[in-house]
Design goal:
Layout (H helix, E strand, L loop, with lengths): L4 E4 L5 E4 L2 H30 L8 H8 L4 H8 L4 H7 L4 H8 L7 H11 L3 H5 L1
Antiparallel strand pairs: 1-2
Helix pairs in contact: 2-3, 4-5
Length: 127
């Protein structure tokens, strides 16, 4: 890095002269810092939204990322068969299968029964 040249204007303002490559590197570093700050702000906002909620366990998140429906991932995470969960939630196995396959949507009452049967917060099932 070359030493920058400092020039004083007639009005007393100090100006810095530096090689273009160094200028470009500074601009790129500033852009990266701004992007990092934006990422941190997004992370902080999402974390604040989740304040007071229980996060998914890692294995549950991984199953969802692999494409399983949240309901199916929750059921498997709790080591239940469709029949077992359907019985606990007072549903038919076929209806539960449709919910897991996203062919049908659970009503608020059904979501509440599933959350209770799975012993998880309602927003895990309903969200």
């Amino acid at each position: 890095m070359n030493a920058p040249q400092i020039i004083k204007t007639p009005g007393g303002e100090e100006m810095v002269v530096l090689p273009r490559a160094e200028y470009e590197a500074l601009v790129q570093a500033a852009d990266q810092a701004a992007e990092d700050a934006a990422d941190i702000a997004i992370y902080d906002a999402r974390k604040a939204e989740l304040h007071g909620t229980e996060p998914f366990p890692a294995e549950l998140s991984m199953a969802i990322l692999r494409g399983e429906s949240r309901l199916k991932a929750l059921r498997k995470w709790r080591s239940l068969t469709q029949s077992e969960l359907a019985e606990k939630a007072d549903l038919t196995q076929g209806f539960l299968s449709d919910l897991e396959a996203r062919r049908r949507t659970a009503s608020a009452e059904t979501a509440a029964r599933l959350a209770e049967a799975l012993a998880v917060p309602l927003d895990w099932v309903d969200g």
